[in-house]
Write a structure and sequence with these properties.
The structure is a single chain. Helices cover 41% and strands 17% of the residues. The chain is of the alpha/beta class and 330 residues long. It has a 7-stranded mixed β-sheet with strand order 6-2-1-7-8-10-9, sandwiched between helices. A 3-stranded antiparallel β-sheet has the order 3-5-4. Helix 4 (85-98) packs across helix 6 and helix 7 packs across helix 8 (175-188). The chain binds S-adenosylmethionine. The site of S-adenosylmethionine (SAM) has 23 residues, from loops.
């Protein structure tokens, strides 16, 4: 177990008071941001279930819609536009059914009463979109192999400290974290075992993390994976099922972490942080806050990868540009 794995064990799932009940705080930038209609309207809800009218349920009433979207903004930083009633109704339907709630009011009240965090977790599973892929935004992984790892490994060799710490924030169902690990192992080759190298992968969705830690993917998801990686890093379980080898899975620690409201429970900064395609859903004050907090957890000279459709424009205090959607901590 690497140092990083041990640290990750400590506190990422620390019990909290029920955050659903936190008071409305106009001074809290997360809360204020929900009032903004100009920022990213949530792209989260672009792939909805069928409209609620087709599945025979009532739309969320206006008061409950406002309460629910405020609760979601406060807890997850996700802004849901006023015009998304039908989509949110569709997304909430499985949760109402699963817990047998007679109405949206009953569901909201139960979330507020629940101190275990289970219902809040279920809620985020329903509303978040975990779209991801192996080698997504492939140029990033080429640059990781050709520029970022050579640069960092050289620096570490010079100071005689063979340690590479990588954090994959918002890892969804795991493909991104595994891709990083495939690159790291390929780059370090036979030297890999001499390095304290590991990936910490976090997400807010417990459901996505369950899939990630199993590491089992179907043939369609395997398409972007090069043949040598397929052969070296996966076991084929059936014609349509591939499992990441245990020796690779255990090099990645998957943990639940809310980028918006959880304190980052790390002991040491990271050399590389991937935080891709998540802050696109956050309003600007939240993005600003997140970029500053990520910077604090990067070593000077460490690399931040963001999604290609995201921008640090105006938020790049303490970072310098390295390549498209890659920044270096100054
Ligand atoms: C579109 S996926 C991106 C996955 C991956 N980073 C990629 O680029 O392929 C966005 C992920 O962000 C997670 N997410 C959303 N809000 C979050 C939050 N407040 N804290 C942590 N993760 C969050 C979602 O659960 C989802 O898995």
């Amino acid at each position: 177990m690497t140092d990083m794995h041990r640290q990750a064990e400590n506190g990422l799932n620390a019990p909290r008071d029920n955050p659903a009940n936190e008071q409305y705080q106009p001074s809290n930038p997360y809360y204020r941001s929900k009032l903004s209609t100009t920022d990213h309207d949530t792209i989260y809800l672009t792939n909805p279930l069928p409209p609620s009218s087709e599945i025979g349920i009532d739309q969320i009433p206006p008061l409950e819609f406002r309460e629910l979207t405020a609760l979601i903004a406060r807890n997850f930083g996700i802004h849901i536009g006023q015009n998304k009633v039908t989509l949110l109704t569709g997304r909430m339907y499985p949760m109402l059914k699963k817990y047998n709630f007679a109405s949206h009011r009953a569901c909201i009240d139960a979330i507020k009463r629940d101190n275990t965090g289970e219902l809040l977790s279920e809620l985020v599973n329903r509303i978040s979109t975990n779209h991801t892929a192996f080698y997504r935004e492939e140029a990033h992984f080429r640059l990781l192999m050709e520029k970022v790892l050579p640069d960092l490994v050289e620096q570490k060799r010079r100071i005689g400290f063979p340690d590479i710490r990588i954090w994959c924030a918002a890892c969804a169902t795991g493909e991104e974290a595994y891709t990083i690990m495939f690159c790291l192992r390929k780059f370090l080759g036979a030297e890999y075992d001499k390095w304290q190298a590991g990936v910490l992968a976090t997400d807010i969705s417990a459901e996505a993390l369950r899939t990630a830690s199993k590491g089992i993917y179907n043939a369609a998801r395997m398409e972007p994976v090069p043949m040598d990686v397929r052969l070296n890093c996966f076991n084929q379980l059936s014609p349509d099922s591939f499992e990441v080898k245990a020796s690779i899975r255990r090099e990645i620690t998957f943990r639940r972490l809310n980028l918006v409201s959880d304190a980052f429970p790390f002991r040491k900064p990271f050399d590389i942080i991937f935080c891709r395609n998540v802050m696109i859903y956050f309003p600007r004050p939240l993005r600003e806050n997140l970029m500053a907090r990520l910077r604090d957890w990067l070593i000077p000279g460490g690399y931040l990868f963001i999604g290609h459709s995201e921008s640090l424009s105006g938020l790049n205090d303490g970072y310098s540009y390295a390549a498209p959607a890659i920044y270096i901590r100054s």
